[in-house]
């Protein structure tokens, strides 16, 4: 892969676009993301603690902005190294690298449903149950299409928002720069192809991290293929037993590793601070784990409160983690550019063991906290009530041959009241995506409201 194509800033589905001299494409991309309704709704979506009353605890929007700041630092550091030491970039291209990573970080959670990862799991488990029954509209979905609903993925929903549903609907979405979309896509594979990748998805005995999940839906494969071809991403074809190509996946854009690192740094470190503020872990646990991420001297700060001290440790930990990930990118640069680097930068860094210790505490003490678990169960039931309440509407829409003007009075009211995106639906697959567009776009509190509206008949 080569930087002269990886940093392309032409816009998706906008051949007449010309970049303004003092307003580069990535700055416009950040504006389009920042002012979009899906981004704004992140202010009321769970990061870790759903429906929490403590204003100091993170939500998705704050996390996205923090990740964008860390991403800009990572991009600047790596870009400067590429320009100064390797002579691979110009000074202006250093700014492009930093800008593309920052843009990707801003958008990285834009497709996440309410109630965090438990919301994803709730959507997936509901679809599994309905597909198993196979009634009505569910019976028209092919096995390959079912895979992406059974394991609903916020990353793929994010790609759909950026390239399809927001702004220029079905005509390029936000029409972001190709480089922004490449840096955004952590998992350059569709759901069915990911399952078929087999040994081709293993690099030097390690499963390729770009296949850990899937990053776009079946009907968005042509869009990503266009982006990947323009950027020069390495493609791997998947063959069936007869040698026929059944699909393809791509190696990550190098900047996707930096976007992922910014996300990993922020959620691991900030989750610890939130957990301390929420009294899920002790001061000693928080400062010990955060202190391990930096080589800078540790002080007692007797004049500061314990919350202030945790914040100081958090700031130092972020600086230490940024330095370690930049170092990991440099050390693995050749493999990254060849598409043969199979791990995340955090895992490969000199702080990999320290981050693993943080994740272990998160699994045992933070994610299993009683209040969090209680609210996750509540959130799951909210999602189920919404989906159960709207499924009859889709079945009726199918029965009236996708003509929303022929819906019954009640379902027509529901469409108007909730502004359901069904006007352009013409088949069962698109209908289910319209359903997940709506549900995944909700804030936590709006989901509770809609569950009360459609769950009572």
Structure, described:
This protein is mainly alpha-helical and 457 residues long. It has 3 domains: 3-112 and 151-249, Hypothetical protein af1432 (Orthogonal Bundle); 114-150 and 369-457, eoxyguanosinetriphosphate triphosphohydrolase fold; 255-366, putative deoxyguanosinetriphosphate triphosphohydrolase fold. Helices cover 59% and strands 3% of the residues. It has 21 helices and 4 strands. It has helices spanning 3-6, 25-34, 37-40, 60-84, 91-107, 116-133, 143-150, 154-165, 178-184, 191-196, 221-231, 254-277, 283-291, 306-331, 333-338, 345-348, 352-366, 370-399, 409-418, 428-440, 444-454, and strands spanning 202-203, 206-207, 235-239, 245-250. A two-stranded antiparallel ribbon has the order 1-2. The protein has a two-stranded antiparallel sheet with strand order 3-4. A hairpin with a 2-residue loop joins β1 and β2. α4 (60-84) runs antiparallel to α5. It is globular and about 65 Å long. The model has no long low-confidence stretch (mean pLDDT 92).
List strands and helices in order, with pairings.
Elements: H1 3-6, H2 25-34, H3 37-40, H4 60-84, H5 91-107, H6 116-133, H7 143-150, H8 154-165, H9 178-184, H10 191-196, E1 202-203, E2 206-207, H11 221-231, E3 235-239, E4 245-250, H12 254-277, H13 283-291, H14 306-331, H15 333-338, H16 345-348, H17 352-366, H18 370-399, H19 409-418, H20 428-440, H21 444-454
Antiparallel strand pairs: 1-2, 3-4
């Amino acid at each position: 892969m080569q930087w002269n194509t990886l940093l392309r800033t032409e816009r998706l589905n906008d051949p007449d676009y010309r970049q303004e001299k003092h307003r580069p494409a990535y700055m416009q991309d950040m504006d389009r993301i920042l002012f979009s309704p899906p981004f704004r709704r992140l202010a009321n979506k769970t990061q870790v603690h759903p429906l929490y009353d403590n204003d100091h605890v993170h939500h998705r929007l704050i996390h996205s902005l923090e990740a964008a700041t860390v991403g800009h630092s990572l991009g600047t550091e790596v870009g400067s190294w590429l320009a100064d030491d390797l002579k691979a970039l110009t000074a202006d291209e250093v700014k492009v690298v930093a800008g593309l990573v920052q843009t990707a970080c801003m958008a990285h959670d834009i497709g996440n449903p309410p109630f965090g990862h438990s919301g994803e799991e709730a959507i997936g488990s509901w679809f599994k149950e309905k597909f198993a029954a196979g009634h009505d509209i569910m019976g028209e979905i092919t096995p390959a299409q079912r895979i992406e609903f059974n394991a609903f993925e916020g990353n793929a929903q994010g790609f759909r928002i950026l390239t399809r549903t927001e702004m220029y609907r079905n005509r390029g979405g936000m029409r972001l720069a190709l480089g922004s979309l490449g840096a955004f896509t952590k998992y350059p594979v569709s759901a069915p192809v990911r399952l078929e990748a087999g040994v081709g998805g293993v690099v030097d005995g390690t499963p390729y991290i770009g296949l850990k999940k899937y990053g776009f839906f079946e009907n968005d494969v042509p869009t990503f293929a266009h982006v990947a071809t323009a950027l020069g991403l390495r493609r791997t074809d998947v063959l069936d037993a007869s040698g026929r190509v059944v699909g393809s996946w791509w190696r990550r854009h190098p900047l996707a590793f930096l976007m992922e690192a910014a996300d990993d740094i922020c959620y691991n470190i900030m989750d610890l601070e939130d957990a301390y503020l929420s009294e899920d872990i002790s001061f000693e646990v928080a400062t010990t784990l955060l202190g391990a991420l930096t080589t800078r001297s540790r002080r007692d700060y007797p004049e500061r409160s314990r919350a202030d001290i945790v914040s100081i440790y958090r700031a130092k930990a972020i600086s230490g983690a940024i330095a370690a990930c930049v170092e990991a990118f440099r050390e693995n640069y050749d493999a990254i550019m060849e598409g043969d680097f199979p791990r995340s930068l955090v895992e490969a860094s000199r702080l990999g063991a320290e981050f693993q210790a943080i994740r272990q505490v998160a699994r045992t003490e933070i994610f299993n906290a009683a209040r969090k678990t209680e609210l996750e169960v509540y959130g799951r039931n909210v999602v189920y009530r919404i989906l159960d309440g709207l499924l009859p509407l889709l079945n009726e829409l199918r029965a009236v041959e996708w003509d929303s003007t022929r819906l019954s009075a009640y379902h027509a009211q529901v469409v108007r009241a909730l502004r359901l995106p069904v006007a352009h639906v013409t088949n069962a697959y698109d209908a289910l995506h319209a359903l997940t567009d709506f549900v995944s776009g909700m804030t936590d509190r709006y989901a509770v409201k809609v569950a009360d509206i459609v769950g009572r008949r």
